[in-house]
Amino acid sequence: MKRDFLFAYFQTPRGKLLKELEVAYLQRSITVGCQQTLLQIGGLGWENEFIDCSLYQNFSVLDAKKLGSDEALKVSAKSYALPFQSNCFDMIIVPHLLEFDASRFQTVREIERVLKPEGILIIINFNPWSFSVLYQFLLDKRRLADSWKGHFISRARLFDWLKLLNFEVNSKTEFYLNSTKTKQGLQALNSFSISSSAYAVRAIKRRFNPIPMTHVQSLVTRLAIANPIGATANRHD
Q1: Distance between CA atoms of 209 and 187, rounded to whole angstroms?
Q2: CATH classification of the domain holding 152
Q3: Which pTM value belongs to this model?
Q4: Which in 37, 41, 194, 215 has the greatest CB count within 10 A?
């Protein structure tokens, strides 16, 4: 299973702290209405800790292995070929999936397709420069190396992907073992820390409607009669 390292890491003391921080972050980040449609790509099993599935009845979890909380609606499908119509979700959450997805960029393209214009996208990834994550991987290398089929994604690369697909990143949150820090603004978004264990990116899908270019009709010079009424009156006089 490609995500064995992920679930094993969440069983460690550091992983449990990270899980609590991410749960609190997702609780704050789900700001859409109860009647709007939400999709989570990549099941975790503890979705009921950050969302009330009885309140958000349009919340679904898509996972090829049917992972996810029992209270949530589950869809078994591949993330790079989402079985949904275009522009049908108001919010999409992607927690620690792109790192283990061999077709990660195609998955991001599919996310852009099914997300509504001005819809919200939240992506959570491990920090590729985190000493705690790398230390845990090396510590469990003998037991988990064969199952590690992931690829750490830097924030700069993720920002480039989102920008290419017309997403506007409006906030970035870094998860430390004892706190979280949210940064906004272009200068803050470009900064990074090697001490955080993971990071989250919140972006909005922008839809720019191009203005069609039309040909300007050529102007034809025409003669104009100056004060024709006055000229007629003078002629009668």
Answers
A1: 28
A2: 3.40.50.150
A3: 0.81
A4: 41
